Amino acid sequence: xxxxxxxxxxxxxxxxxxxxxxxxxxxxxxxxxxxxxxxxxxxxxxxxxxxxxxxxxxxxxxxxxxxxxxxxxxxxxxxxxxxxxxxxxxxxxxxxxxxxxxxxxxxxxxxxxxxxxxxxxxxxxxxxxxxxxxxxxx
Length: 138
Description:
The protein is α/β, with parallel strands linked by helices. Helices cover 39% and strands 12% of the residues. The chain has a domain at 4-75 and 117-137: TIM Barrel (Alpha-Beta Barrel). A four-stranded parallel β-sheet has the order 1-2-3-4, with helices on one face. Helix 1 runs parallel beside helix 3. The protein is elongated and about 50 Å long. The model has no long low-confidence stretch (mean pLDDT 92). One of its GO terms (molecular function) is beta-galactosidase activity.
């Protein structure tokens, strides 16, 4: 049986990751879910991807015996995407668009959102498809 938690290394300084992994190990946490809100770190600009920080976080966690389940990062579209395609933001009951900066700030039926979501998911899957340090769960 696993004892798991969500972990957001993108919100912490890199120096903190080892401390956190050690604390997880001592607490008996054996599994963490990563990346569900990390789209802006994984794709900081349109078509520019950075997986190095996530690779390093996974390495640190694995050294401490903490397994990783990667989530799709599509729950928080990055600001560059909203700036380029504001129609991705959902309409509120009053007819106004939701503002940027909340989680799940997207319209679930928007085809542009689907296009970019599929693109980041494919890039993440391609990068980690043969990586034994984690499992990818779309």
